[in-house]
Records
---
Amino acid sequence: MKFREINVGQNAELELAPMIDVVFQLLIFFIVTWQFARFERDMDISVPAAEQAENKDRQAGEIIINVREDGTIVLNGLVMEPEELLARLASISEAYPDQAVILRGASEAGFQSIVSVLDVIKEAGIWNVAFATTRPEP
């Protein structure tokens, strides 16, 4: 009895179209997430060092407010006046009462400018505020 060979002449081929689709999806994902992470940090700011600084897990939807050396307030890459910041934070606080805010003040910034931003945050009704620090270099 003679059996037929089923796989005679059929070579396995690698399909490139699905692989290219997956690579493009990954590329889009990384570009989009990089775009969001870019707004979080203002490279002109070097935050103060603290011995007890910790790297805490980030909460989803945290607002990061940067205060530069000259007292300029930056939120999501936009320079804002205190009145604009108050209006934006008040609307956010109204929608999300437990909204978290991270205040990144430059170590060379005046104490009064950081306290002024803290007053604006308090006036907007936000109570969940953290200050960004780094560990001192050995």
---
Amino acid sequence: MKAVIQRVAHASVVVDGATTGSCNAGYMILLGVAQGDTEQDAELLAKKIVNLRIFEDENGKMNLSIKDIDGEMLVISQFTLLANYRHGNRPDFLESAKPDEANRLYEYFKSLVSREVRRVEAGVFGAHMEVTLLNNGPVTIVMDSEVLKKKK
């Protein structure tokens, strides 16, 4: 499972002309589910993300988590994070999970972060989405649950 975490001042997602999710100061997360991912992958990422200290404290140091600042989160499913671009110029997405399993783990991830973050909103799984955000920093971090598994 891969996640792109962007520290934002605000973000929103629109589907078919209607806003389906938004957040104020916090994270906009793009989440890609790979074949073979499990609940453990979602749990590892969720725990790391909600405790990640990338918000500035009173001394201007990145020392606070999203929980510390009472931040918000916008989570968007993005299978293109699993793009295989090694051969040719047209990526394939064969490493991404099948839609039913990807959606199940996406929903599970959202439920996990919702336990720790006051407000979590989302895009629409499988829809064409228009995302707007104001990256704060800019701060962008890419995480892979496989990397977190190797840590142990």
---
Amino acid sequence: MKRLSLIFALLLVLAIGIVPITAQDDVTLRVMNYSAEQQEFYDEAIAEFTAETGIKVVWETLSRDAYNETLPRMFDDGSAPDIFFWLGANRVLTVSELIGAEWIQPLDQSVLPDDWQSRWADGLFVEGINIIEGDIYSFPFNDNKIWGPGYMYINSLVWEDAGLTADDIPATWSELTSICETIRESGPYCIAIPLEGTHFQRTWFPLAGTNYTDQMFDYQTGQYNIADERTLETFSYIQSLYEADLVIPGVNGRDETRAAMAFGEAAIYFGGAWMPSVFENTYEFTDVVAAPAPHPDEGLVGSLAQRHSENKFFISSTSENATAATQFIEWMTRPDGYFAQNYLAQGFGTLAYSDNGAYITNPVMLDVVDIAMNQRPEMRVQYPEPAIECPAVASSDAFVNAENIRRNWEWEEMVLALTTGEDFAPVAEEIAAAKNAEFQATIEAEGISPDCFAFGDWDGVSNFDPANYSMGG
């Protein structure tokens, strides 16, 4: 009788397409990422996974800056975790970058359901992006339409104290300046902008994206674009806010500026789709409103990049537990599983493999979804991908070499200009010239055509049509 029950259970598993997870009592997986504010959720998730599978997991989080410094050292000394989180210099090509660094190994496909990739929309598993020579190295985690930068968050208490209403939420840059002057007259600063490290990007991306692009590379011309007149126009606008004493002064960190907004020292903080959960869970602050970022007075004339959904979780090349690690990834990516339901319900973000609308409950997060999907769907559009146009791009060192001339060069110089009031244009020309020279020299040495990176027929403000790839160029 027991034998018949076991046979029936196995047939049921095969029928519903879920691969059974075998307990491995001698395995303890180590997972690491940043987002320390989500640690309690991770602890709950791994407890559920262990209860279901018998596989023990330790999930460690650090602050982002500490994580970026610590993880490379862990690979150097052999103490890397089994599963880790990473974003490369070119986020779409993170897999190729990490293979080059010998940091990752592929998922163990023998323990994945045959239809595992069907959990995602078509076209999100691509050779050269997350598949290399047929091996799967990662998976799209957050969705690529809602998730990302581009949102303006408002402290509604500061807003109301300044005599402002929902009708006053600015749609244009000149309206933002005017509103900021009103807020400053009432006491608080208008905007909290982080300048420490690379965190200025949190403000830069949404404003630059409404005017031109949030990328430091122009996919119409195939050139680094920090010296483009539209880039400089956006920078000059932000600099004018500093000159008018509308921004909290000083080189402040991400956490300090978030706290300043939550505690009423400023009215506005620009950030990504993850901010509703940060405000609620880290600062116990819920008097916040999400709104689209203001655009130039002539209209929304640029777009943020909706590229291939970022592949963020990887199995370490040094892990001896690749099978158990793959089992954890399979469990984590179940569309209606414990991880997806609770990640979404607690407002931590949006997922590429689940029905976001079915589980999100945070009202501010629902507003973020509405902004991206309904209020301003043109805010983020599908950019062309050179690695699809020309497969050789996936193994190119051109982007990495250009970035490594001086890591974070643009951010450091923009912060310096904002804090000193100096003209940013001359150094922008220097940065663009150096990066473009290195980029061109690299692709020439690799035998890759510059045409692989330039899509001159694409308008930059609407979705790139995949039919326009020349399929191998």
